[in-house]
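#lab-general

N.A. 3:47 PM
ok so I finally got the sequence cleaned up, no stray characters, all 519 residues accounted for. can someone with queue access submit it? mine expired

B.Y. 3:52 PM
send it over

N.A. 3:53 PM
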Amino acid sequence: MSWSSKHQGISEFFHNKLGITGLAIIVFFTFTALCAPLLTSNSPNQIYVTGPWAVPQWATAFPQYSDLPSNMLVTSADLANWRITTASSTQATPQQVALPASALNGLGFKFDPREALLISSAVPYSAKTFSGETVASLSYNFTYEYKPPYDFTFGDIIYVANVSNVADFYFRFILSGPSGTYKLTSYAIMSNSPVEVISYRNGIPVGRWYDISLSNVLPDVNTAALGPSGSTAVDSGQIFLAKKGIYNYTVQLVVIPQQGETAFVKVYMEPAYFHVLGRAYGLLGSDDKGRDLWSQFVYGSRISIEVGLLASAATVIIGTFLGLFSAIEGGVLDEFWMRVADVILVLPFLPLAIVVLFVFTQSPVVQKDPSILYIWLVVLFSVLSWPGLARVIRSQALSLKERGYVEAARALGAGKLYIMNKHLLPNIMGLVYANLALSVPGFILTEASLDFLFPNASTIPTWGRMIAKAYEHAASATAYGFGWWWFLFPGLAIVLLSLAFVLLGYALDEIFNPRLRKR
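B.Y. 4:20 PM
back already:
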């Protein structure tokens, strides 16, 4: 193809509205896939980034979602805003401290270095201290003016500097307000818990910062606050913060001396945090475990584009080569490859792909690195899809081979390879380009279908897997509005990206096929 014809083809493409529309959509999703780490701040598999079933943030513009809470830290980082009370034998002094990054991991929100309360206390053993003495309390009042959240996290960041003659000490968290008063922690329940560490004997370390991080999703927290029935409570945030109004949040340090001894403790306490997990979050909301659906959507675009483009490119290369090869060689080789194509064409594509996918998922290699699964899918798609294109290319090449200029080239001594490269291939490139674009949607839809049928085959987020998980959890979730945001956007993305390649294919076919050009 000469430079003038190439330039003319490009000019025609940019005057083709369908082609430009398709290309714009493809560029958008390609940019999204390439820049996924820059466009997201959360891992697609990180749970409780926000509350479960959070609607997209922009949905709060609608009346039914207008007073849903976003992620919010309702407590203050300034000790001056807290009410501090201590026992008579306790000294409490605010001091400026800098928290190491290791103390802040996993909190789900940003903490800055702040003031800590240095608590030094001597507690002599007596009958009154047999169950422990509250040596310090930090209380904070906050106003809650939203619908109740499903979940929240709470806790404190502490540094235990010195401990002696102590049977145990622990931290008690209490929430009170219009909804009632709830002791969110219980020493009797949590002192022996292998998960919730709120006491010295249960694992609070000495000589380093430690984050006591708890949540109402933990059965021990709900049991401590609600009694035995709390062990099976779901969305208990709607109980604790059921009403709008002023709430009081308190954390207490309780010391239990050894029998007959005077206990000494020296502890730094940060202002306790209380973090409401939002019911409105981000661009696409969250799933049933509070995972960021925008992160899943963005990273999922990678798989759809990669599988679609790679499988289409491999199919077109194989089909074009074998179609030309069969046409130019003829005879036994032509017959052999066409019979192979016939055999593959009669194979049931989707059932075979399901069986092969199941076999792949049992491989230890795939289980170790799930991304390999999609490499094998590209190979499978390519092997099963080339015959159709090969037959079309062969038919076109056989027609071209009988043209006068090809006969003239052959009479002048041109070889098969020369004729293929100079006369056949350039004349079928329009067909190749169009098929390259038009075959991508089929592979995108097939990959999404397999992910929908096998959502647990991999942990890599894909659009098909998002829809499968939404079908599994949201289809019966009437209390959460069926989680419409969970399946709507990946479904639209699959349709848009597939449509984009169809529009691009039609535009290319129109440019390279003169009979389809508008007069």
